[in-house]
Amino acid sequence: MDARKGIFESVKDGVVGTIKGTGDVAKAVVDTVSGTLTHTIKGTSAVGTSLIEAVSDVGRAAIRGAVDVGGDVGSAAKGAVIGTLRGTKESGVEALDAIKTTTSSVIKETSEVAGDIGKAAKGAMQGAITGAKEVGLNATEATSAAANGILKSASEILSGTGKTGASLIEASSGVLRSAIQAVVELGGDVGSGAKGVVLGILQGTKVGGKEALETISVTSSHVVKGTSEVAGDIAKAAKGAVQGAIAGAKEISLDATEAASAAATGALQAAEEISSKAGQQVRKAVTGTIGGVKVVLKEPFKSKRVS
Known about the structure:
Helix content is 80%, strand content 2%. It has helices at 2-22, 25-44, 48-68, 73-87, 95-112, 117-135, 139-159, 165-171, 173-185, 190-205, 209-229, 234-251, 256-274, 276-286, 300-306, and strands spanning 288-290, 293-295.
């Protein structure tokens, strides 16, 4: 425990000192995090669980240090993910696990210090995409892992407020949209981002049955709206959301056909609200068989809009 506390304090102090010296939050965090992890791995032969704990502690400490000196939480989150990927590159730690752990710890610590979780989510996603290119990691997998970590932790934080299912998603819509928008703005694959977001939500909320289907529908709706707000490819985002719903359904013993239908319907509902052209694009993208599952669209919203 003392060793972990030592790592946390040393990273926090390092980040504080470097930001005060240079004013560059992102660089301060990248250098401190990567340096600490490299040193920790070499110095203690940390492996497995203890290394993942170190990754988590370092991510949290980076946010705490940046916030202590009024630094931007988005830049700190981005730096924490890039620094982690650099620092663990030679360690044999699974890079995708490192991304999930860091993005998750960054969101949790931002919440602890009452920071802007949306900003942290956007920064963490940017860090994952940028860091993936640097260490030769599949950008699609990195995007999905980051979305998963971000949304899983955001869901856990908001579950503590008593919100569950669809109401929880409404509460975390800012985080969700920020994560998707980071993918679009950096030229990442919005399909895999959307898939990771839906999967992360299902893993984080741990709801089942009808509530899970509502959660999927509302999440898919926000994914499409968030993508549209930054002129991203909404058809790709919608299809990714359906793929995420199918993958998530398998994990929580939910009927994959119903999950796919809920995602497609939520995505289409959002698209129709944007424009009839958007509706047509999304309808085309989610009609047919996706991931071996036949997608059945349900359209209760048509009658709602007429009334």
